[in-house]
Amino acid sequence: MKILIRDILAVLPDGVKTCSVAVEDGVIAAIDNIPPGFAADKTIFGSGKMLIPGFVNAHTHVYMTVFRNCADDLTFNDWLFGRILPLEDKLTPEDCYWGSLLGIMEMLSTGTTCYNDMYIFTDASARAATESGIRAVLSRGLTGGADDAEGGQNRLRQAFAEIEKWRGTENLSFMLAPHAPYTCDTGYQEEVAREARRLGVRIHTHISESRAEMNTIQERYGCTPPEIMDKTGLLTDRTVAAHCVYLTDDDIALLANRGVSVATNPVSNLKLANGVAPVPKMLKAGINVALGTDGAASNNTLNMFKDLSLLSILHKGATGDPQAVTAREALDIATKNGARALGLTDVGEIRAGMRADLAVIDLDRPNLQPLGDPVAALSYSMNGSEVETVMVNGRILMENKNFLTIDRDRVLYEVNAVCERIGIR
Questions:
Q1: Which of 108, 157, 257, 269 is deepest in the core (most CB within 10 A)?
Q2: DSSP character for 324?
Q3: What does the domain layout of the chain look like in residue ranges?
Q4: Strand spans (E) along 257-380
Q5: How far apart (Å, rounded) are the C-alpha atoms in residues 46 and 188?
Q6: Which residues contact 150 (CB under 8 A, 6 or more apart)?
Q7: d(Cα 206, Cα 17) in Å, to the nearest integer?
């Protein structure tokens, strides 16, 4: 399909300007220099609108939308072990499918075109992503070790089978996801690292999220979480480490030297009282920092605008430096840095030759007038409701706020039925 986006204010790698963008066969074919004879099947008129690269949610648990607003104001351990894990035990694969579709609806409606998911049931997220048309990097969460050898092996087999089943599916790729150093012993970590190398896939994990984790790993191994995961081979330039709130200077240097990408989750980390990740220090060390929402059980949304705004503001207050994370840096973290973390070389920017993963924003809003600096407006003025139309790989998935690939009413009905059954409501 050929799409022409005419005369729109576009956020480009080298600045913001009004231009026309041609999309053909899922790719941005041209910016301004539209090829002679380009006959668009569809034209989007850009007057009063802005075009941005779709956000890349670099760490989330999409199925957890079914747990939204049901595990709040708790300590991290009470939240995870006392509330969330018991609820997870009640879920079926079909529950997670509907929860994933709800999460995808929320992400599309707020400008996210790609997400990095860690989940408990194979196929559920893949089905939802494929049917909706969104871009997704998927990984079955892995826990295991000497105390749960059979369970750990079964989860690995599930991950292998899913990767094989969905291999070559458009817009899908896969990682292996050792959950965390406190749920995977060193032998299991080493095995996952070996299997990732064998399969040629990346690693998606949690590291240094809470004080409790820090204390547990120090008592168990006499070192920090990054240090133990480095010893087991999990820290490489193909690793996405979520959270990284509690890092020593040596940890930061280690992550930088190994080329690890960090997915910071500011809203989740603050809400669970886990603290503030040292993002400015990581950026200064040369670490590729990406942005994630975490799951709706802890955020409580999958709205990247919410995390983008907090990311831009939080570190100014924490450091006393108004340029600790600028609006432009925050946008890069939420787009091209996320794509780099996930190994997606043709996503994250509006540039000829890149995949057409794009979001159109309606600027005719009181909170956006006068517009001033459009990039600053993304971080400091917008809330996500301004997103009007979204395409992934050149396919329009939401147009004028209407979902074209998802039955919105059916999803809401099914998710509420899940919540009734498992006793949330």
A1: 108
A2: S
A3: 2-53+347-403, 55-341
A4: 261-264, 288-291, 358-362
A5: 52
A6: none
A7: 38
Q: How far is CA 173 from CA 83, 162, 205, 406, in A?
A: 31, 11, 16, 21
Cα-based distances in Å from 30 to 35, 51, 93, 391: 7, 14, 42, 16
- pLDDT, residue 316, reads 97
Centroid of chain to Cα 112: 8
C-alpha distances out from residue 391 to 44, 55, 108, 349, Å: 12, 12, 9, 14
* Helix or strand run (H / E) with residue 167: none
What's the topology of domain 55-341? TIM Barrel (3.20.20)
| Phi, then psi, of 77 in degrees rounded to 5 | -65, -40
In the predicted structure, residue 258 carries a pLDDT above the cut 90:
yes
The Cα 374–Cα 262 span in angstroms is 27
pLDDT in tens, 214-249: 999 999 999 999 999 999 999 999 999 999 999 999
pTM of the model: 0.97
Sequence-ordered list of residues with C-beta below 8 angstroms from that of 299, at least 6 positions apart, any chain: 265, 267, 268, 271, 293, 306, 307
Token pair belonging to 230: 């480095």
Select from 181, 250, 274 the least CA-distant residue to 221. Answer: 181
What per-residue string of b and e applies to 248-286 under the rule 16 or more CB within 10 Å gives b? eeebbebbbebebbbbbbbbbbebbebbebbbbbbbebe
Mean pLDDT of the chain: 96
Token code pair at residue 310: 């907090």
Q: Judge if the upstream peptide bond of residue 53 is cis by omega within 30 degrees of 0.
A: no
CB 267 within 8 A of CB 293: yes
pLDDT(70) > 80: yes
- In sequence order, which residues have a C-beta less than 8 Å from that of residue 323 and are 6 or more positions away? 316
Q: Are 359 and 113 in contact (CB under 8 A)?
A: yes
Instruction: Please provide the distance, in angstroms rounded to a whole number, between the alpha carbons at the two ends of the chain.
Output: 44
Q: How far apart are CA 363 and CA 47, in angstroms?
A: 9
pLDDT at 308: 98
The CATH architecture of the domain made up of 2-53+347-403 is: Roll (2.30)
